[in-house]
Write a structure and sequence with these properties.
- It is a single chain.
- By secondary structure, the chain is α/β, with parallel strands linked by helices.
- Helix content is 57%, strand content 10%.
- It has 9 helices and 5 strands.
- The protein has a 5-stranded parallel beta sheet with strand order 2-3-1-4-5, with helices on both faces.
- α1 runs antiparallel to α9 and α7 crosses α9.
- The longest helix is centred in the N-terminal third of the chain and has 33 residues.
- It is elongated and about 55 Å long.
C-alpha cells in the first residue's frame, strides 16, 4: 500500500511539463486501442442494418485509423490523414461522396475536419477527443453542410474510468469558451495556452484522484 503512494507521487504527471503531456498522450492512445473492437462492432452493426448507409469516422492517431480501415475493408473504405497528398484529398472525398460501394470514411480529426464535404453520410463517429473543443464542431460541420437534407447523428465513444472521462469533463466545462470561439468573439482560434490549460487540468485531476485512492487504501491499513 505504501508503494502505491510512492508510485503516485513519482508518476510523470508531476514531472516536467513535456513529460506530462507525453504521458497524457499515451494514456489517451491506450484508452482508444482498448475500445476499438467495440467501435468496429457498432459500425458493422449499423452498416449491416442499412445497406445504403454511410458513416464518417474521426480519430486522432494514424495507427488506429489503419486498423479501422482494415477491419471495415469489406464495406469499402477511404482514409484521409495528415500524410494524404493535397491532390489526393479531392479524390478521396469524391469517391466517398459519389461511389455507393465506398461506405466508410476514416479521417484524422485535424486533417479531415476542414475544407471538405462529406454529406453522403448522416452519421459521424468520434473515436477519441481532441484537446481543442472547436475541432469537434468543425469536423461535425463536414457532414452538417447546407446540402445535407437528412438529420445528422454524432456519436462520441468514451472509455469508462480512463483519462477520457477527465478530458470530457474539462472540455464540457469549457463549452462557453468554445461557443465564444465559434462566434468569433476571440478571433475564432483556440490558442496554445488554452490547450495547455486543458491538459494541466486533466493532469491535476488524475493526480488528485490517485492521491485520494492512495489515502483511502492507507486508511484501510
Amino acid at each position: 500500500r505504501s508503494a502505491g503512494r510512492q508510485g503516485a507521487e513519482g508518476t510523470p504527471l508531476v514531472g516536467g511539463w513535456g513529460t506530462t503531456t507525453g504521458r497524457l498522450g499515451r494514456l489517451k492512445h491506450t484508452a482508444l486501442v482498448g475500445k476499438l473492437p467495440m467501435i468496429v462492432a457498432a459500425i458493422k452493426r449499423d452498416l449491416d442494418a442499412d445497406k445504403t448507409e454511410k458513416v464518417v469516422v474521426f480519430c486522432h492517431y494514424r495507427e488506429p485509423i489503419a486498423s479501422l480501415a482494415k477491419e471495415l475493408a469489406r464495406y469499402g473504405v477511404v482514409t484521409l490523414t495528415g500524410s494524404t497528398e493535397s491532390e489526393q484529398r479531392g479524390e478521396v472525398v469524391e469517391r466517398f461522396q459519389k461511389d455507393p460501394k465506398i461506405r466508410v470514411f476514416v479521417g484524422q480529426t485535424v486533417a479531415a475536419g476542414v475544407a471538405i464535404t462529406l454529406t453522403s453520410a448522416r452519421r459521424a463517429i468520434f473515436c477519441d477527443l481532441e484537446w481543442n473543443p472547436a475541432l469537434h464542431r468543425q469536423a461535425m460541420d463536414r457532414i452538417h453542410r447546407k446540402t445535407q437534407r437528412r438529420d445528422v447523428e454524432v456519436h462520441f465513444y468514451l472509455a469508462e474510468d480512463t483519462v477520457e472521462e477527465d478530458i470530457a469533463e474539462v472540455l464540457e466545462e469549457k463549452s462557453a469558451m468554445m461557443d465564444q470561439l465559434l462566434e468569433g468573439r476571440q478571433g475564432g482560434t483556440f490558442g496554445l495556452r488554452d490547450k495547455e490549460g486543458a491538459q494541466r487540468e486533466v493532469a491535476l485531476r488524475i493526480l488528485s484522484r490517485r492521491r485520494r485512492l492512495t489515502a483511502l487504501t492507507d486508511d484501510d491499513d
